[in-house]
Amino acid sequence: MDSRIARTAEALTPGGPLGTLRTVTSLAEQHVKPAVRWSIGHALPRAVLRLAARRGDLQGRITVEASTGADLTGLFDEIRARGPLAATRIGHTTTRHEVVKAVLSDDAFVTARPRFGAGVLGKLAAWSSTEVVHPVQPPSLLAVEPPAHTRYRKLVTRVFTARAVEQLRVRTQEIADELLDDLDPSSPVDLIEAYCGLLPVTVVSEILGVPTQERSTVLALGAAAAPSLDLGLSWRVFRDVETGLNSFDDWLSRHLDALRANPGDNLLSRLITAREDGEGLTERELKATAGLVLAAGFETTVNLIGNGISLLTKHPAQLEALRADPSLWSNAVDEVLRHDPPVLLTGRLCARDTTVAGVPVRRGQLVTTVLAGANRDPSVFENPSTFDVTRPNARDHVSFGAGRHYCLGAQLARMEGEIGLRTIFDRFPGLTTLPGAHRRPTLILRGFERLPASLA
What we know:
It is a single chain. The chain is of the alpha+beta class. It has helices at residues 2-12, 17-54, 58-66, 73-81, 97-105, 120-128, 148-159, 162-167, 169-181, 191-196, 198-207, 215-225, 235-261, 267-273, 283-314, 316-324, 329-339, 371-374, 410-427, and strands at residues 86-88, 91-94, 109-111, 189-190, 346-350, 354-356, 359-361, 366-369, 432-433, 438-439, 448-450, 452-454. Helices cover 55% and strands 8% of the residues. Strands 1-2-8-5-3 form a 5-stranded mixed β-sheet, with helices on both faces. Strands 4-12-9 form a 3-stranded antiparallel β-sheet. Strands 6-7 form a two-stranded antiparallel ribbon.
């Protein structure tokens, strides 16, 4: 008996066999698995797309050129000229408005997530997977399909009703006023840091029931996780994103426990208790929803307000039209969304052989729907490159997507955009942007990283 106890003790010591196994497992979790996730999910696709871009492939080109912040109007037109679905090395892409809507609304297509099959890549992907909630991984609404999506969205939609959003309008106006009160009109300011980012993160924090003293944490976590929607991240950015998502996951666990113990008058507290046929959201689903609200509700609205400020300062006649008729502000927000949308594109994977606009699409092929390109389709929008706040059909843009994955936060984004833009131009009618504006290097999310301005 004594010898067995001794052997067990030896195995459990740091230098024993079990101790060694634990060390190896820990090293794999900390270093090897993340490296494999990055290699499969980012390094390999980036290499393939860059090679495709050098060979003139449209999918490769839009991926590479978008990350430079370049004007993509010519590329949108080129893709559109290649037919309803332009062939690429990995599937198809389109900038035609009716085709984008058709693909996003067709149940033959599902959300595009990497699928590596049963081979070596598939086994490595399964081995290296992580349980940390990710905005574009299940159970996020962006990444699940019916029947799970149907149940999930029903519960979430109950909370994000038009009435619930409208109840936030007065508070959103108060937040905008408070933020502008803190600005010194005599000093230049980076509007992304001082206003465009703080407005939506404060609104999102109230939706999530985040205590005031923790909102800087949410802002930092949101900024760190923002590139998570992109494909082809560098190793450094990927590690920063994973660190941010891990921290957010840990924070969410504590926050959900606090709300269960002391529920408040906020949408996340209501979501915790929401039930459909007696069934509510699991812990992972609640985390995924909160993460999606932060990633989509915060990051896209930052871009909407920043892009809107930039466009209106560059088009003073349009700003004068809004001052002459303030009822146009709502339409102006939709024109900003059409002309310079916060999200460039989204992808769908063909789940079964089908035909779109007369073009056969095989099971397993990727179709990239370029939302920004569809918003410039001349068959729908007259003079599509012109920014016009009086455009009668500005609301026909596809910046919120279409079909079952249409953006749940569309009403919230419109409301925040309208208040955010109208209030800053009412308060500072002499606002002008300064040299030094810098677009974000992200592919999917399109907006400004810095937007220096003079308020006087």
